[in-house]
């Protein structure tokens, strides 16, 4: 775990992530300018650091209602504006980028931040980016696998020799600058069925698992499949960190938290995904066994601890800003995390 | 209430003839409903390539979005090679897995003979149920002999279609009310 800059003795890491969505607040119908949204994301990272949160990440999406297409640029700004918090992408679409450029960018962010940068690589859940950047959707799978492999190779080897289908070959190429310690954590983003978890396990790379809603036990299947695949392919699962990512929102009572966040999630998903979040399923999310961490501080603490016991993961990251949540509500959430949730989680999970 | 009439084939006239009757009656009997006809013969719909339906443009995007925004869908389909036409199946393939959640779907079928009477039960209904539609259980099966020169001449078929229209509207209203009452109970 040390290799991935994770110290299990300190307990479960807690982070925040944003997809960088840029959606109207459904309660007012107004959408803040992209400039304000980007600046608020940077400020959010600073506030998260001040509250003692371990990790902050920004996603890349090339479609309507998003503002962080150039997520690595925003992460550069966050690197400069913060001192302790780990920073990452959630996720970087390596399929449609050049892995050499991705590594150059993130190694640079790592140097700016004194060794706090990580990469989470994903395959994109939207495909508009393939048209925009000139890739063929038919290569969806192969583009990711080939480029992700190259990214990992660049991380391991100072001098790279490589040949592939989707990028010019590399002959004794030195990809510089190198990160602060010559190497940086690179995760694979995984969503949906265990099939992609198994791929991450086989490759022996740490896994970021999206857990948006439903019983926590359902996601345990992917986690077990990941560890099993790692073991079968000669990796030690005890040395591979797992992180989970999902909706988070805290308010005085669970009902108030649901009431405040539901319109944002529902309307935001309608715009970005074409379908709202069924209210019945959202209501069920209050159950302590559900993976959705929306509720009163006490209920969230109990849920996170239950998930920790079930998954044995090293990091949880929450998404609390989806769908145009006003900034004062986000600040309020960070206060609650810093004063109530973090102390409890650390107390119960530190070794 | 938004109701879409989906005529599922690019071939022939029987399905469209019946659809014309259904939509005319629907508009007459329920003038407050917003009725849209999608006859797949009028649109150039691409084959599904797995993308989110919002990311299709042109006719494909229009067809997918119109269906997703509907409260109810009345599907008219012929029987091709003992099944639904590929054009209709492709429309389902364009949509997300639970596309028909909170939607009512009703059906009528046109065919040359009664040989494939159970095609709807065995092939169309399982697809719609999987996509979470609330089904109007009774469907109308219309044969070649029920038509004369692009008009339905069998009163029994017309009566059945009238009932199909009524059931579609009443069930949509009912399910909407049930959902509203249930959602009000959640208190958020």
Automatic annotation (TrEMBL), chain A:
Q: Which Pfam families match?
A: Bac_luciferase (PF00296)
This protein's UniProt keywords: Monooxygenase, Oxidoreductase
InterPro entries xref list: Bact_Lucif_Oxidored (IPR050766), Luciferase-like_dom (IPR011251), Luciferase-like_sf (IPR036661)
Quote the CDD domains the UniProt record gives. Flavin_utilizing_monoxygenases
Entry GO terms, CC: cytosol
One of the entry's Gene Ontology molecular-function terms is: monooxygenase activity
- Enumerate the SUPFAM superfamilies for this protein: Bacterial luciferase-like
Q: Does the keyword Coiled coil apply?
A: no
Q: Which residues form the Luciferase-like domain?
A: 13-310
Q: What is this protein called?
A: LLM class flavin-dependent oxidoreductase
Q: Which organism is it from?
A: Oceanobacillus piezotolerans
Automatic annotation (TrEMBL), chain B:
The name under which this protein is listed is NAD(P)H-dependent oxidoreductase
What's in the keyword line of the UniProt record?
Flavoprotein, FMN, Oxidoreductase
Concerning Gene3D superfamilies, the annotation shows:
3.40.50.360
Every copy of the NADPH-dependent FMN reductase-like domain together lies at 1-143
PANTHER family in UniProt: FMN REDUCTASE (NADPH)
Q: Does the keyword Flavoprotein apply?
A: yes
Pfam families from the UniProt entry: FMN_red
The cross-references to InterPro entries, in alphabetical order and at most eight, read: Flavoprotein-like_sf (IPR029039), FMN_Rdtase-like_dom (IPR005025), NAD(P)H-dep_FMN_reductase (IPR051814)
């Amino acid at each position: 775990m040390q290799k991935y800059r994770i110290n299990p003795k300190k307990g479960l890491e807690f982070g925040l992530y944003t997809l960088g969505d840029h959606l109207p607040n459904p309660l007012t119908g107004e959408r803040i300018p992209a400039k304000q949204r980007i600046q608020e994301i940077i400020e959010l990272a600073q506030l998260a650091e001040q509250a003692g949160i371990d990790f902050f990440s920004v996603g890349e999406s090339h479609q309507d209602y998003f503002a962080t297409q150039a997520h690595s640029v925003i992460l550069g700004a966050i690197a400069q504006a913060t001192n302790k918090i780990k920073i990452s992408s959630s996720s970087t679409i390596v399929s449609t980028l050049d892995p050499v450029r991705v590594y150059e960018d993130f190694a640079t962010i790592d140097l700016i931040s004194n060794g706090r940068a990580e990469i989470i690589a994903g395959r994109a859940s939207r495909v508009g980016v393939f048209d925009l950047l000139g890739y063929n959707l038919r290569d969806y799978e192969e583009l990711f696998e080939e480029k992700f492999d190259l990214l990992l190779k660049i991380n391991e080897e100072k001098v790279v020799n490589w040949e592939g289908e989707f990028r010019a070959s590399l002959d004794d190429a030195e990809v510089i600058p190198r990160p602060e310690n010559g190497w940086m954590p690179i995760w694979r983003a995984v969503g949906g069925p265990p099939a992609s978890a198994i791929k991450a396990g086989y490759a022996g790379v740490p896994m970021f698992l999206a857990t948006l809603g439903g019983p926590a036990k359902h996601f345990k299947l992917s986690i077990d499949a990941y560890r099993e695949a790692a073991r079968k392919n000669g990796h030690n699962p005890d040395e591979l960190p797992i992180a989970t990512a999902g909706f988070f929102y805290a308010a005085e009572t669970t009902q108030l938290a649901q009431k405040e966040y539901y319109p944002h999630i529902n309307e935001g998903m309608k715009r970005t995904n074409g379908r709202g979040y069924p209210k019945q399923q959202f209501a069920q999310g209050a159950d302590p066994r559900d993976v959705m961490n929306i509720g009163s501080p006490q209920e969230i603490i109990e849920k996170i601890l239950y998930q920790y016991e079930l998954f044995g993961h090293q990091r949880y990251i929450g998404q609390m800003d989806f769908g145009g949540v006003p900034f004062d509500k986000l600040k309020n959430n960070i206060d609650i995390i810093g004063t109530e949730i973090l102390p409890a989680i650390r107390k119960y999970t530190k070794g | 209430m938004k109701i879409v009439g989906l005529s599922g084939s690019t071939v022939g006239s029987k399905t469209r003839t019946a659809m014309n009757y259904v939509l005319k009656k629907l508009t007459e009997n329920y003038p407050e409903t917003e009725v849209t006809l999608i006859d797949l013969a009028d649109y150039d719909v691409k084959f599904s390539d797995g993308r989110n339906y919002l990311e299709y443009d042109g006719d494909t995007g229009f067809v997918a979005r119109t269906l997703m925004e509907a409260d109810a869908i009345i599907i008219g389909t012929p029987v091709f090679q003992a099944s639904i036409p590929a054009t209709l199946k492709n429309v389902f393939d364009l949509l997300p897995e639970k596309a028909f959640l909170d939607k009512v779907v009703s059906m009528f079928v046109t065919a040359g003979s009664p040989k494939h009477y159970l095609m709807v039960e065995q092939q169309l209904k399982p697809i719609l149920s999987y996509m979470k539609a609330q089904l109007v259980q009774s469907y109308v099966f219309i044969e070649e002999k029920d038509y004369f020169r692009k008009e339905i001449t069998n009163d029994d078929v017309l009566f059945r279609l009238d009932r199909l229209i009524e059931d579609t509207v009443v069930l949509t209203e009912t399910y909407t009310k049930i959902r509203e009452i249930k959602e009000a109970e959640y208190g958020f």
